[in-house]
Specification:
Distance between the termini: 13 Å
Helix content: over 70%
CATH architecture of the largest domain: Orthogonal Bundle
Radius of gyration: 22 Å
Number of helices: 11
Shape: elongated
CATH class of the largest domain: Mainly Alpha
CATH topology of the largest domain: Rna Polymerase Sigma Factor, Chain: A
Largest sheet: none
Number of domains: 2
CATH superfamily of the largest domain: RNA polymerase sigma factor, region 2, helix turn helix motif
Amino acid sequence: MALTPVQQTKADVHTDEELVARARARDEAAVRAITTRYNRRLFRVARSILRDDAEAEDVVQETYVRAFTGLDMFRGDAAFGTWITRIAMNEALGRLRKRRPTVDWETYVETRPQAQIIDFPVSAASNDPEKTMAQGEIRVVLEKAIDQLPDSFRAVFVARIVEAMTVEETADLFGLKPETVKTRLHRARTLLRDALDKQFGPALTNTFPFSGHRCEAMTEKMVQLICR
């Protein structure tokens, strides 16, 4: 049974430490409160690595199973939210490693696309006219935002991100020091992020939702596994 609004309000005022202490005793309300509190964060972290909704949801479930059955290993050296999020991240990376055996967190961070322009292959015809139109509109917005960057920043951004050139290759191309390339890329990203935030900011806060029925279903599943 999902938490009532009154129960949810009461759960929100409890700290993670209080909820963890109660969850160690398999307190159902505490388990519900923790899962409701962290469902979305864990889902988003997992999905950002795996880019697959179903697999990310599996990661969330496995994370809770590992966390709740291993609460005695949580010593409080880090915040509970950090601890459980690391479990989700490691679980997602473990699944990614099965696809690419050499993946770990450091190499993932170094090699994953960073603020990369969304690739919409023009040769692949879509059967969904609305989706095709939406993709085209997003591309236009991105292109306009990039065009508005200062020349020196835009050139470095396109070389490094759009063309995926290395720092060294970009530095050699423009006769710059590697440190200058990194600085210009950072500033270009900041400007681009600000420009896009003005247009997409309100919508971005609602991306990859994990609420309503899905949130309640995950909580119920965990209660059945942990408390029954």
